UniProtKB/TrEMBL annotation:
Entries under Pfam families matching the protein: 3HCDH, 3HCDH_N
SUPFAM superfamilies xrefs: 6-phosphogluconate dehydrogenase C-terminal domain-like (SSF48179), NAD(P)-binding Rossmann-fold domains (SSF51735)
Name by which UniProt lists this protein: 3-hydroxyacyl-CoA dehydrogenase
Annotated site, Important for catalytic activity, chain positions: 145
Keywords from the named record: Oxidoreductase
Statement: the UniProt record of this protein carries the keyword Oxidoreductase: yes
GO molecular function terms noted in the UniProt entry: 3-hydroxybutyryl-CoA dehydrogenase activity; NAD+ binding
Similarity field: Belongs to the 3-hydroxyacyl-CoA dehydrogenase family.
Residues annotated as domain 3-hydroxyacyl-CoA dehydrogenase C-terminal: 191-286
Pathway participation: Lipid metabolism; butanoate metabolism
Domain 3-hydroxyacyl-CoA dehydrogenase NAD binding span(s) in chain numbering: 10-188
GO annotation terms (biological process): fatty acid beta-oxidation
Length: 287
């Protein structure tokens, strides 16, 4: 198969929230016509505004080759999934992280698009094989795990289930590169590559803090300067949100075992409302 060097002509994104708007933005900026499907009519305008805001920001930073309005003209936002063009090459699902909701929109999308359309989910934690099991053709389904904020993030984890067709994986890897991003292929497993390693490091840093090995600033500085991590594990937990990290840790604990058991300090901070940057305080002070 020839290597794909361009994004598809036509893409659909289901869910125009934080991630979906970013995904729509990067595909449209690379030349694709993008259909964004929202949950109901009342959410359509906000989703369109999120894409417009993202494009304006990209233009300000000199990252857009065209006028934002020209790129936005390639983006259609609507609430009726049946309006997705049949010939889209790719559908990326980015609705909230609830399995029954994801299965619902994916199975409905499968009925609307052609047999050759690739279906992808942006789930950060759910099993690709379990979501795919609800589809008529799980061979055309995989995970495309984008990072937040999508336009600035270089990585997309391409998550493959045993059923995923090799040519589907190849196409998606080519599209990721055509977006100017880097793909890593990861087998469907809890936490994929990024959450599994990132969360483990964060949990160990919290245990070190609990044990009084060093204070938060010292632990973060140790990794930033000693190992050249762009951000220490506690600062990074503050940015992600302690509540979000706790939920992922609980899931990984239940699937991968004791090494992911959430430390008491993490639970206590979440219970106290110290959720990181968004609440003004986590392991560091952000006020
Ligand atoms: N936020 C992150 O940092 C991040 C990173 C990677 C992956 N993810 C994953 O991406 C997905 C979306 O996360 P998000 O942060 O963008 O959430 P979000 O809440 O910002 O966006 C979800 C969007 O889906 C819409 N929606 C709800 N029901 C719908 C339906 N039936 N049909 C169409 N649209 C519907 C909502 O109106 C909303 O705009 C989740 O699976 C999440 O785990 C999030």
């Amino acid at each position: 198969m020839d290597e794909v060097t361009a994004v598809p002509d036509s893409v659909a994104v289901i869910g125009g929230g934080r991630m979906g708007a970013g995904i729509a933005q990067v595909f449209a900026a690379s030349g694709a016509a993008v259909s964004v499907v929202e949950g109901d009519e009342s959410s359509v305008a906000a989703a369109r505004q999120r894409v417009a805001d993202g494009l304006a920001k990209a233009a300000e930073r000199g990252k857009l080759a065209e006028e934002p309005s020209v790129v936005l003209d390639r983006v259609a936002v609507f609430a009726d999934l049946a309006r997705v063009p049949r010939d889209v090459a790719l559908v990326v699902e980015a609705v909230p992280e609830r399995p029954e909701l994801k299965v619902d929109v994916l199975t409905r999308a499968e009925k609307v698009v052609s047999e050759s359309t690739v279906l992808a989910t942006n789930t950060s934690s759910l099993s690709i094989a379990e979501l795919g099991a609800a589809l008529r053709e799980p061979g055309r389904f995989l995970g495309m795990h984008f990072f937040n904020p999508v336009p600035a993030s270089k990585l997309v984890e391409v998550v493959t289930a045993p059923e995923t067709g090799a040519e589907v994986t190849d196409s998606v890897r080519g599209w990721v590169r055509a977006l100017g991003k880097t793909d890593v292929v990861v087998r469907d497993s809890p936490g994929f590559a990024t959450s599994r390693l990132g969360v483990l490091l964060g949990l160990e840093a919290i245990r070190m803090l609990e044990e009084g090995v060093a204070d938060a600033e010292a632990i973060d500085t140790a990794m930033e300067l000693g190992y050249r991590h762009p951000m220490g594990p506690l600062r990074s937990t503050d940015l992600v949100g302690l509540d979000v990290r706790l939920a992922i840790a609980e899931y990984l604990h239940s699937t991968l075992g004791e090494r992911f058991a959430p430390p008491k300090l993490l639970r206590d901070k979440v219970a106290a409302g110290e959720l990181g940057r968004k609440s003004g305080r986590g392991f560091h002070d952000w006020s």
